[in-house]
Amino acid sequence: MDVLSAAKAKERQGGDIVHMEVGQPSAPSPARVLEAAQAALAGGHVGYTEALGLPSLRQRIARHYRDAYGVDVSPERVVVTTGSSGGFVLAFLALFEPGARVAVAQPGYPAYRNIFAALDIETVAVDVSATDNWVLGAHALGRADPAHRLSGLLAMSPANPTGTMIPGAELAELAAVSRRRGLWFISDEIYHGLTYEAPAQTALAFDADAVVVNSFSKYYCMTGWRVGWLVVPERLVRPIERLAQNLYISPPYLSQVAAEAAFDATAELEAVRAVYAANRALLLHELPRMGLTVAPIDGAFYAYVDVSRWTDDSHALCQQMLEEIGVAATPGLDFDPERGPQFLRLSFAGSHETCRECMRRLRGWLQRR
After folding, report:
1. Cα–Cα distance between 62 and 164 in angstroms, integer?
2. What is the rounded CA–CA span in Å between residue 79 and residue 241?
3. Alpha-carbon span 62 to 223, nearest angstrom
C-alpha cells in the first residue's frame, strides 16, 4: 500500500505509471452483481441481516461446493463475513487462545501474522522455496514443529505471493497430519477459480472439520463490497455467531444480495480470467528471458520474482523502478522478512496492455543496468 501511495503521488504530478503492485482485479464487478444491488437499493430497506448472513446466500454458497467440488456442505456450516479479513478474525478468535502457535508458509500473506500478533497468537513461519516448489507440505511442517507444540496450521492455495497451488495429495496429507496431531486445519481458498492448468481442490474434500476461508473479492471481482465466507464445523457455528454479533452485527446487506448474484455471472468472470491467463503466459515467457526466475504461477494473479542477481534490497529496487521507469511493484519484504529482500511481486490483475508495457519498460531498464 505504501508503493501504491507513492505511485498515486507521481500520477498526480503527471507521471505515467504502470500499476503492478496491488492484488486487486482491474475488471469491474459483473453486471448481474450491480443489477442485484441496484434492485435491492431501490427496494428502500437496507438493514441488518442475521449475523451469520442471509439464509439464501448461505444456501447458495453450500450449493457451490457441491457444483464445483462434489462436496456436500450444510448451509448451516456457512458463515458470511465482512470479506475474508473479517473471516480470519472470527476464525482465529474462535479457534485459538492467546499464546497458541500456528504454522504458516513463508513467504505468505502478511496480514496473517499481523492479525495473529494483534490477538497474541504466535506465528510459526515454515520456510518454503523452489526446492519444494514453494508449497507448504507435511514434511516441512514436521521440520518446523519437531516438539509438536502447534495448535493449528494455516495453508493457502493458490498462494499469495507465489501463485503456487498445493496438490490434492499434499492437501490430503496436511489434513491427515492435522488430525493426528489434533491441530486446527485452516485453508485459505480466496483465489479459487483463478487457476490456469488444473482446478484447485478444497480442503473440505479431505477433512470435513477443516476451516475454509473464501471471498468474493478475487475471482468474483468484488473487492470493495467486503463480503466473504467461512465453512466451519457445526460445533463452531454458535461461538462464531456470538463473536460476529458483537464485532460486526452482520455483513452488509447490499453486499450479500450482490454476492448471491455473482454465482450467475460465470461467463463474464471467465472472460476476466482469460485476460489473466494471457497475462500469465506473457510474464512466464518474458521474465526468464530477462534473467529473472519466477515461482510457478499455478493460480492467483501474481509473479514472485527472484531479483537477487541485481540486489539484496528489493525495497530499494522497487523505489528505483517507480522513479526511473514508472513501474510500481511490491517488494518481497512484506511476504518474507528474511528472504523477501531478494524478491519482488508483480500483480498481473490488470489489462494485457498494462502487462505488455511493464515487460517493455522492465526489459529496457535491466539491459541498461
Report:
1. 26
2. 8
3. 21
**Residues 262 and 33 sit within 8 Å (Cβ to Cβ):** yes
Q: Could you tell me the CA-to-CA distances from 150 to 31, 123, 208, 211 in Å, in that order?
A: 45, 10, 20, 16
CA atoms of 23 and 300, how far apart (whole Å): 9
CA-to-CA separations, 7 to 12, 103, 174, 323, 337, in angstroms, rounded: 9, 34, 40, 9, 23
- Cell numbers placing 135: 508449497
Query: CA-to-CA distance for 357 and 279, rounded, in angstroms?
Result: 11
Q: Rounded to 10 degrees, what is the CA torsion of 197, 203, 207, 211? A: -170
Where do the H-state alpha helices sit in the chain?
A: 2-12, 31-42, 55-69, 83-95, 110-118, 138-144, 168-181, 234-247, 253-262, 266-289, 314-325, 352-368
pLDDT digits (tens, 9 = 90+) for 174-219: 999 999 999 999 999 999 999 999 999 999 999 999 999 999 999 9
Q: What pLDDT digit, counting tens, does each position of 70-83 carry?
A: 999 999 999 999 99
How far is residue 64's CA from residue 87's CA, in Å, rounded to a whole number? 18
At 230, is the secondary structure helix, strand, or coil?
Answer: strand
Radius of gyration of the chain (CA): 21
